[in-house]
Design a protein that fits this description.
Layout: H1 4-20, H2 40-61, H3 67-86, H4 90-100, H5 103-106, H6 109-113, H7 117-129, H8 133-143, H9 154-168, E1 178-181, E2 192-195, H10 196-212, H11 219-229, H12 237-246, H13 252-257, H14 264-283
Antiparallel strand pairs: 1-2
Length: about 280
Amino acid sequence: MFAPAQIAFHLTQIEFQLFSEIPQREYLHNAWSKKGGEAKKLGKLIERFNAVSFWAVTSILTHGHSTKKRSPMLALFIAVADSCLKLQNYQSAMQIFSALNMSPVQRLKDEWKALPKRSQQIYADLQVFFASENNFRNYRNVIRTVAAPAIPLLSMILSDLTMIEENDNNIDIKDSPAVTIEAGAASGTEEKLIHFEKMTMIYETLSVLKRCFEVSYSEAMIESIAAGEGTKGEGTTEELQWMLKVLPRLPEKELYEFKGDSKKKVVKELKKAYKTVAKERKKA
């Protein structure tokens, strides 16, 4: 079992790299929601969110057939989310937090009850931080002034950009700051307007990305967090990097059909399917 800080740091490295590769144009005009591959790199990051969540759920469900074995894995992922927060990697923290809140994991009542008090408190803190009340106010208050390096919540950025685009359709251009471009006016070409308020809102939203990625993460950061955890993981860095790249996981349908049954046969079948998926992804 890898240490939480190890997992969090390598998740952070991967997410940081993927975010850094996205050209700014992919964030404009809701390109990620359109067909035709206009936002391929952004789409890849969107798909990875669910992949990480389902990988975490799979890891918890298939870690043995008893509460004694599964509860420590549940505690591990709670600690991973906490380590991600310490690294200011809000994207991965939310990926894991979402996994913890999926019904297949929430149904593990005995495993949740068996958690150490510290794990229960960390999970409670995660619930407060990612609370959706007042448009995720707690998260937004932090990201507004956070210093680099940091990885913001992609879902919040896309949600804000979508809202700007949708509201633009309802704007009365007469009452809003704008400039008229009269290119081709002599030939009867229709005038075009640039809406400064909209451009400013888009700039302010994307400036969060610019600020968060001004500085890269360093190995010293994981050492600091690992020292605070006081834990050492098992397995090599290469194994962990491979796992977090391919994210071996069970299909969504199989995960949601899992009833928390403690029978060995059920878990044995899940683990067998998990190994098959992992083997196939390793070949890919």
